[in-house]
Write a structure and sequence with these properties.
161 residues, alpha/beta, three-stranded mixed sheet, two-stranded parallel sheet, 3 helices, 9 strands, globular
Length: 161
């Protein structure tokens, strides 16, 4: 990672997982000057392609990958394709793993793969990593989580105010 100029910042374990990244980011960025930053909600990600073009487009706007969220202030956001934060269990059309790489069913390579789950036990991909020998699907966890997200989606659609 160091040859790629990745900065590793030891964060705190003091806060809830959803919030601690904001405290850690603020602490790190306080005395730094960056034109833009990439903010991902977890360290369980693989970058399979270059994303430089994302930084060169719409520089003065928030770019987000929506996850079934209702964005109230949509005119201030540019929505990116799910391939830039691909979470296996939330994707309706599924995915394919070939030689350790992730693809959409149509064969398009997924740019950023997010093996979401908060704890290793709940992650749908076993041996998550970069290379041919990695990334086996845990079918039980994958299908349980997929069903969970489908139920939540149905609930939001049919039972909200």
């Amino acid at each position: 990672m160091f040859k790629e100029k990745v900065i590793i910042f030891k964060g705190t374990k003091k806060y809830h997982i959803v919030n601690k990244r904001f405290f850690d980011s603020a602490k790190y960025l306080k005395n730094k000057s960056y034109d833009q930053i990439l903010f991902i909600d977890g360290g369980d990600t693989i970058f399979q392609e270059d994303i430089t073009h994302v930084f060169n487009k719409d520089k003065n706007t928030f770019r987000v990958v929506p996850l079934g969220m209702e964005v109230l202030f949509f005119k201030w956001f540019v929505f990116l394709d799910s391939k830039y934060n691909f979470m296996m269990s939330t994707e309706e059309k599924g995915f394919i793993v070939k030689k350790g790489l992730f693809y959409k069913p149509n064969g398009e390579k997924i740019v950023i793969v997010h093996n979401a789950g908060q704890m290793d036990f709940f992650r749908p991909i076993i041996n998550f990593g970069f290379g041919k020998e990695y990334n086996q699907i845990n079918h039980i966890i994958y299908n349980v989580k997929k069903a969970q997200y489908q139920i939540l989606g149905w609930y939001k659609k049919n039972l909200k105010d």
